[in-house]
Amino acid sequence: MMNIKDFDIQFELGSGTYSTVYYGKNNKTGEVVALKEMKEFRENCGFAQTTARELKILQQLKHQNIVRLYGVTTSEKYCKGEGNIFLIFEYMPHDLQSLLYSTSTTSLLSVGQLKGYMKQLLIGIRYLHSIGIVHRDLKPSNLLINNEGYLKIADFGLARPITYRECNYNVITLNYRPPELLLGCTLYGSEIDMWSIGCIIFECFIKRPPFQATTEAETLSQIYSICGSPNPNIASQYKFWKNLMPNQFYPNRLNDFLNQCQCNQNLSILLQNLLNVNPLERFSADKALHSSFFTSYPFPFFPWQMVKFQSTLETHIISMSPATPIDSPPLIQFV
């Protein structure tokens, strides 16, 4: 385990309910790092269960498109009931959310650059799924970007091994949550991440998420009206189907919706295969990477071709959004 004395913690970068992130330097190497302080209850100097799960997964991951965990340490008084756990990450100066919506950067994001970022996202997710891990919280603010042109997936607080045993349906930020989870599905795998990626790719090029609502019921209503009704033979098995099933049959008009948003044909084909209301019919990460969207002009940029952005120290390098507790009550509104 690393020693907290090995790091010069200089200032806070951001704070949330369950964690605070600091900008710091390794005193021995001079390397800039991000120190994520976990605020949590624990017993007998042990790590809380949620942090232990996150650590176990992070320690398995070694990929250029996944944020690197250097190690873990605790404050000096941790075993006296004071202080907290620190996760030490590589420093990433930007996140995709900030680049998409900052007036100083959004105009610099060419189609080739955005394609390059999305290709890296899919390569990282393909690796993650290949080793049996589902992320369960993909969104632009959890995709970090450095000045070498690399996009890296971060925030594994909700990640889980793919077991196809019952899991919590109340995961993934609402705008990126697939319909089966909104309907209470508890048996799922990598396909839930692929819906989120479809939402992210749409947002990159249209500059807004495809579905924006404040409740689960409203989000489902938007999904039905655009993507069509799910297959009742499958969806009828979901917990909230009787309460939240569509009140009529909705045809799939996603192609028309994407045309209205001025998506070109290659982008439209990819999104129609990712934003599919029937989870078993969604593209895998590998299929998405082989779609015509990534093999057509303008081609995805390589990292060395990416426009570099000036570092902003206020960027939240590790997502501050609190992870949804595993046994949290449903937020669903019954209609």
TrEMBL record:
It comes from the Eukaryota. Keywords: ATP-binding, Kinase, Nucleotide-binding, Serine/threonine-protein kinase, Transferase. This is cyclin-dependent kinase. ATP binds at K36. Pfam families: Pkinase (PF00069). GO terms for cellular component: cyclin/CDK positive transcription elongation factor complex. It catalyses: L-seryl-[protein] + ATP = O-phospho-L-seryl-[protein] + ADP + H(+); L-threonyl-[protein] + ATP = O-phospho-L-threonyl-[protein] + ADP + H(+). GO terms for biological process: positive regulation of transcription elongation by RNA polymerase II. It is an enzyme of class 2 (transferase). PANTHER family: CELL DIVISION PROTEIN KINASE, CYCLIN-DEPENDENT KINASE 12. GO terms for molecular function: ATP binding; cyclin binding; cyclin-dependent protein serine/threonine kinase activity; protein serine kinase activity; RNA polymerase II CTD heptapeptide repeat kinase activity. Belongs to the protein kinase superfamily. CMGC Ser/Thr protein kinase family. CDC2/CDKX subfamily. Its EC number is 2.7.11.22.
